[in-house]
Amino acid sequence: MIAHGNHIATHPPELTALERTALLTAALRAAETSRADRLYTDPYAAGLAGDAGWALLAELAAATGRRPGDQDVPSTPDFNAIRTRFLDDHLRHLTHERGVRQVVLAPAGLDTRVFRLRWPAGTRWFEIDRPALLGHKRQRLAEATPRADLHTVAADLTGPDWEKTLRESGYDPTRPSVWVLEGLLYYLPQDEVHRLLTRIAACCAPGSEIAADLVNTTALTLPDMKPLLSVFEDWGTPWVSGSDEPERLFDACGYTVTVRQPGDEGADFDRWPDPVPPRDVRGVRRVFFVHGSLRTPR
To answer: What is the pLDDT of residues 20-43, one digit of tens each?
Structure first.
């Protein structure tokens, strides 16, 4: 139980530690929405975060807050704002310009793109997540109207049979789709990351797309990352894996991808505060935005 403002914030008791990180992400999106220079507007984020989400954000800010001129601790708000906008733009491009009509959020967390953005007619939208988090989201968004054909899929992506549940929810594996893995991969061991990517590829049609974010392995051990990583570890949600060569990781699972770092062209939006180190520089933390296409049916 954590004090927040004039309220006492308690975590929804039905959510696990990992599921509660979605409350933090919602609070970050609400904070971004309140900025005059916001990169996007999410009118639902504050209600989804609740006091518990704001309390998590306050705890994170206390541990990682930057001082003027301090470039040592990564800027979580800037990263999250850029990631959200980057994926917003990428999904709009794939649906409006490339004609993809199946979108899969894996996991969905407390994402609200299906409510806050416009999608082409005929877009089918699938949100995979654990039942408790989907229930929390459904309760908080009871009055909201989706702008696509929304299907919620109660399943654990590390479980044995989510593919069957997804198909039973209306997903068509013979039609191209785009899968979004946002804020997930660093919570999974490396072998589980590879397994998940391979399983996704196996249920996708030719022409399908994928988008994800991940960190490099150095980011998990650098002293200047310790304030950030310690918070997640204390919450019971440690970051456990990264990749120094995301192109090779995704290639091994059947995808040809493009990789950008926040601050690169198309992934900056005048908000990334740090220099972008060239890929051949060692010993620095990196965040990667990965997007690309399924190379061959698997």
So the answer is: 999 999 999 999 999 999 999 999
